[in-house]
Specification:
Layout lengths: L3 H11 L1 H23 L6 H20 L13 H5 L2 H13 L3 H6 L2 H24 L5 H12 L3 H9 L3 H29 L4 H11 L2 H11 L4 H30 L2
Helix pairs in contact: 2-3, 5-13, 7-8, 7-11, 7-13, 8-9, 8-10, 8-13, 9-10, 9-13, 10-12, 11-12, 11-13, 12-13
Amino acid sequence: MKSVLDIIAGVLADNGLVTAFAFVGVTVWVSYWLSARLTRGRIHGSAIAILVGLILAGVGGAATGGKNGLADIQVLAGVGFLGGAMLRDFAIIATAFGASFDVLRSAGIAAMISLLVGVLGSFVVGAVVAYAFGYHDAVSVTTIGAGAATYIVGPVTGTAIGASSEVVALSIAAGLVKSIMVMTGTPFVARFIGLDNPRSAMIYGGLMGTTSGVAGGLAATDPKLVPYGAMTATFYTGLGCLLGPSIFFFTVRALMA
């Protein structure tokens, strides 16, 4: 006769996607609670949630000996689908479509230039670092460079151009480090760079690009600035996803030929 725990585990496994949504929801709730209690909002809940997710993925992989993290645990197999490329890319495209180009245009030429400078600058830095650490193929250099833009642009680019899972993971790690640095550093530099009005917030979001980092940093600086910075940061993500697997990849491949 099956025990109660076996029955519950069977129900959870049979409804994997629902279980995954519940599991992620609890993880996010705990992360935001930790953010409020331990950091007083200085480190955004989304950053803590990402760190917790990476740790749990490592623990799951070590415990099962598999390659898919928590998804190798039968009860949490739905996490693999929920975190897969299809839903990820759908969410990115939906976010980009939610932004209005007319609103961005009203911010002026400075905001538009900040987007181009921000995406290109981050990509170049990431690509140079990747090359310096021994990645000399165009696919790996492009993927890690895109990850330096944001931890979303990296995997989108890597998936499109056929990067290995290890390189995609490195691109996510690069973007995560950037997100946390922006999130924690924004309140300290805001006074010195004039980050105290909507226009400067838009430019800042365009230069930094990481939506969660910019939103968390501006929330700790002045919550009224969050929508403006997040708007250009959203365009940054969409622009990076567009340029990464196309112009950036072709350019890197030509330079390394």
